[in-house]
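In this section we walk through a basic example: taking a raw amino acid sequence and producing a predicted 3D structure, encoded as discrete structure tokens. The instruction is simple. Fold the sequence below.
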Amino acid sequence: MKMKKIFILFSLNHKKISIVYLFLGIWSGFIGLGLSMIIRLNLMSPYHKVILTELYNLTITRQGIVMIFFLDAYLNWGVCTWARGLVEHSTNPFLESIFLVGGRLYVNFANLADSRLYIDWVLRKPMFVWGYYFTSFLLFLSIPVLVGTITMLLFGRKFGTLYFDPLGGGDSIIFQHIFWFCRHPEIYVLILPGFSMIGDICTELRKRKSLVGYLGMVLAMFLIAVLGFII
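The resulting token sequence is shown next.
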């Protein structure tokens, strides 16, 4: 029985892989909840601190990272494991293994580029799929910038580089610009899937074959993604 539970991590069954994503998302949620409780316990009294100030700031950062990049990512983006080309192949386990480095982002663009009948693809896909693509577009462009910024900070702490230190010729303001270059699109990363999901739910409840103003909604989400990234 124990071996069967272990083998689910190496399963090619898309349903079992979805269970793994669900479990990892819930597990990450409990970790984020624990960090949130530590933050609140530390704020209960100004005189009795549960953790030190340095650890408090670190806990706030870790709580945000866990909730966004683990809980939200696993529960929202561990989808489409049933899609054609993924069900009968080993693509799903491979994506599961490289999920933390953004492996799920590249499949969307590959599927879009591989669409033979593009007009037919546009008129048939659900709104949620479009929201998924636009969200991946934002993450694909913004996450590498955040990784580069964190790497520059790490080099400054460990190796004494002066990228953001004015005393060494760096610029402290540029860190804020680079940081918000990534974090501002994150707002629309969370909003666009919700917009598209509501559109599909309304279509299903009204028993319609397609959403009223389908192309307009798609273009609206596209403009939201573009303008949100530029601003």
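Looking at the output, two observations stand out. The radius of gyration is 21 Å. The chain has nine helices and no strands. In the next section we compare this with other chains.
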